[in-house]
Design a protein that fits this description.
Elements (H helix, E strand, L loop, with lengths): L6 H15 L3 E5 L14 H13 L4 E5 L6 H13 L4 E3 L7 H10 L3 E4 L6 H9 L5 E2 L3 H4 L2 H13 L13 H10 L52 H5 L11
Helix pairs in contact: 1-2, 3-4, 5-7
The structure holds magnesium ion.
């Protein structure tokens, strides 16, 4: 999730996690969020792509996320570097709301371009899939408003022959709901997005569940089989949470 991390630090922690957890796919960040071609610091993208890719080496899938950072021209230039370094998945190269720009990148490159994590409007999704803006759709179950609406995106994508690899950026319920979704759909993408960031990045996700559903073994997690979502939210966490009441004006 980090962009304040140097190429050497990112390579070190991903290689370490490969050994510790057995992950066989890694995603790291390039460009700058909605950065209009200005990098997090000069040269970071050109440095971090080869350094991390080569440190991870063969036998692992390599993915990057640009978080709407590039113009089509710059996105395609970065895309060529990604292809040369064996990256297979290029997420959100252009501003996500500019479907035509993303499509230029998808059409120009051979690797998979992915996106959709910010989109919740089914009309936009219909257009995105019909235009073939991306090769992989990435709805976020929470931003979408739940499983039923997400399944509509999944079904549209399946009809168009596209895989669905949802956005699940933290270890709250979103990743758990995504695990259940991926276990139930025919066009599940290759990976579950599983954040590796700890309490310094996401302090509120600590101790959320009585039993951690995100224990990794051989690079994978297990979809809980208990009733419902298969987890129990920790009562102590709930007691310590802030509560607010909101009402619809109608
Ligand atoms: Mg993303």
């Amino acid at each position: 999730m980090r962009r304040d991390i140097t190429p050497a630090q990112e390579a070190e922690r991903l290689v370490r996690l490969r050994g510790e957890k057995g992950f066989d796919a890694f995603k790291w960040r390039v460009g700058s969020e909605c950065g209009r071609d200005v990098d997090e610091w000069p040269g970071r993208t050109e440095a971090i792509v080869p350094q991390v890719a080569r440190a991870l080496g063969e036998g692992v899938a390599k993915l990057v996320d640009a978080n709407s950072g590039f113009s089509p021209r710059r996105a395609i230039e970065v895309g060529r570097l990604l292809e040369a370094e064996g990256i297979s998945h290029y997420e959100e190269p252009c501003p996500y709301w500019k479907l035509d720009e993303t499509k230029l990148v998808t059409d120009a490159l051979n690797l998979d371009v992915s996106g959709g994590e910010q989109d919740w409007d089914l009309a936009i999704w219909e257009r995105m899939i019909e235009m073939r803006v991306v090769d992989i759709v990435q709805p976020d179950i929470m931003y979408m408003g739940g499983l039923s609406r997400t399944l509509k995106v999944v079904q549209m994508a399946a009809a168009a022959g596209l895989p669905c690899a949802p956005h699940s950026a933290n270890l709250s319920l979103v990743t758990l709901c995504t695990m259940h979704l991926l276990g139930a759909i025919p066009n599940a993408g290759k990976y579950l997005e599983l954040s590796i960031e700890g309490p310094d990045y996401y302090p509120w996700q600590e101790g959320l569940f009585v039993e951690d559903p995100y224990t990794v073994q051989d690079g994978g997690v297990t979809i809980p089989s208990a009733p419902g979502w298969g987890v129990e939210v920790n009562p102590a966490w709930l007691r310590g949470a802030a509560y607010r009441c909101s009402r619809s004006p109608r």
